[in-house]
Amino acid sequence: MAEAYIVELVRTAGGRRNGRLSGWHPADLGGEVLNALVERSGVDPETIDDVIAGCVTQSGEQSFAFGRNMVLASKLPESVPAVTIDRQCGSSQQALQFAAQAVLSGTQDIVIAAGGESMTRVPMFSNFMLHAKAGIGTSPFSERIKRRFGAKDFSQFIGAQMIAEKYAFDRETLDRYALESHRRAAAAVQSGAFEREIVPIPIDGPNGPEMHVQDEGIRFDASLEAIGSVKLLQEGGVISAANASQICDGASAALVVSEKVLKEQNLTPLARIHSFSVTAGDPVIMLEEPIPATERVLKKAGMKIDDIDLYEVNEAFASVPLAWLKATGADPNKLNVNGGAIALGHPLGATGTKLMATLVHGLIACGKRYGLQTMCEGGGMANAMIVEALG
Q1: Is 359 strand, coil or helix?
Q2: Residue 201, strand partner residues
Q3: Which of 182, 212, 274, 346 is catalytic?
Q4: What's the rounded Cα separation, in Å, for the pair 331 and 31?
Q5: What is the full DSSP assignment across 195-228?
Q6: 376 is catalytic
Q7: Pairwise CA distance, residues 274 & 363, whole Å
């Protein structure tokens, strides 16, 4: 039976909007993680079959075959092809799934799954808002779609609020979760938990050249009072910017290979891709889909939620992982143990392989075996994947 192995996973430390990574063109930032991935893994770059790159806002500097531009900005040979995909926030998790499918099918042996997003240089929604301002089109959602679902618009912010109401989460519950995300992320930095996965990025600091190696969004002095003082996104709601993911610049990548390549190139795998799924449901509430995606991948794997040692559920909004915990009955002490996007940032197209880097390295560090990753995606979709750590 064919297997797909992850040999290496890397990511940049997150950069705040207009922060430490804002001077980097997104293609160049992606090129840096590709360089690090190849160097750390020891793979022969001439043998790479393909690069699959996730990116959500494919406009401006992230347009015109962004994945290929990542390759051209790297040290990889120009003979390495690339493709760019958009499954919204799960784009690079889907890239990893496509890479695994290519290897499992036997059609390719060495595939890089990657993602990049500069939310500073290519702001969220700019790929259609600039068109609308120029009088070219109005909305990606046609009137037919709106009539079908009885919706005036499709908004992740509305979806997050709907989930909070459905599962009876008040603001304090969400704010306490956000505080815990910052505390866990701060503890992870202080313990060196992220050092193995982070690619140092050279930047111009206030005192001259330096390396960006620490996630910029972590609030080491976070308090419930400070989080609770942030203005709500809608009157009478419970969602605020403080209990939602941070806008972030970043890139990440994973190397997936066949068993044959492991032997031929004497590579050491970090993990085996065990099972994966992708599902879709209600596009209005939108962000609840990680729950059925998790159920499906567990069923495919013949496993139960308690068989999993660590979970990474993207913290798009605090209501999302909290609803996932409530619905699955998972152990909260296994969830996002090093913090999540509320503290570390959510660089959209890069988040999928970013979370997988944290999950696999986290499993290895604590001597655990199975990890599950899932994330909500625009349009009411979700990917879920189970990996087995081998390191």
Answers
A1: helix
A2: 212
A3: 346
A4: 37
A5: TTTBPPEEEEETTEEEEE-S-TT--TT--HHHHH
A6: yes
A7: 14
pLDDT score at 176: 98
Annotate 292-319 with b (16+ C-beta within 10 A) or e (fewer): bbbbbbbeebebeeeebbbbbbbbbbbb
DSSP label at 245? Answer: P
Taking a C-beta distance cutoff of 8 angstroms, is the pair 93, 273 a contact?
no
- In this prediction, residue 1 carries a pLDDT of 76
**Secondary structure of 158-195 in the HEC alphabet?**
HHHHHHHHHCCCCHHHHHHHHHHHHHHHHHHHHHCCCC
Q: Residue 138's pLDDT is what?
A: 84
Residue 111: count other Cβ atoms within 10 Å of its Cβ. 25
Instruction: Identify the active-site residue in 89, 182, 274, 361.
Output: 89
- Residue 252 DSSP SS3: strand
Using alpha carbons only, what angle is made at residue 294 by residues 289 and 295, rounded to the nearest 5 degrees?
A: 100
**Token digits of residue 138:** 């109005």
Q: Residue 391 has what pLDDT?
A: 76
Annotation says 248 is catalytic: no
Residue 368 φ/ψ region, left for φ over 0, alpha for ψ in the -120 to 50 degree band, beta for the rest = beta
Catalytic residue among 55, 274, 361, 376: 376
Rounded distance between C-alpha atoms, residue 142 and residue 123, angstroms: 23
DSSP string, 276-341: EEEEE--TTT-TTTHHHHHHHHHHHHT--GGG-SEEEE--SBTHHHHHHHHHHT--GGGBSTT--H
Give every residue of the chain whose pLDDT is below 50, as ranges: none
The answer to whether 89 is a known catalytic residue is yes
pLDDT recorded at residue 127: 93
Q: Which pLDDT belongs to residue 338?
A: 98
Contact 291, 318 (CB under 8 A): no
